[in-house]
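Kindly inspect this chain:
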Amino acid sequence: MDINEIFTLYKNSTFNSVDDTFKISEKNIPKKVLALQITLGNLATLSNCCEFIKSNEFTSNTSILNEYLSCLNFIFSIGLDIGIDNLNFSISESTAPIYDQFLDVYVDINDFINFRTEDQFYTLLESFFTIGKSLNISIADICDMYNLKSKNNLS
């Protein structure tokens, strides 16, 4: 399965219609971007990527994957808001420390806010998937979680 198939899973799932914040609308982009920034901060905290803020509690891989998916849902929703229908890019590897990768995503979010172009969206999405790779989150993990959540929402 590739990234475009995950995007299709998202579009066909109930994740993008759970509440009014996920409805497709250009006017909701600033709210979604703020929610993305907050959720991204939560993901960074869970990943213990910053040596100054360490959690004393064990964080399960499932918790990190759930937070990662929450961020991805906001990014996909923003993509739909700007008219993205298909994804066409590749995930790159990064040798940068994970905290730098998180900072890069925040810079990409800021660039997207300022320009709102497809190119800026793809740069943001690519940077975010790079974090996923660094956190050992695979495309298969994402698909499995979407399928699991879809089955749970149907029950």
Notes: The longest helix spans residues 61-81.
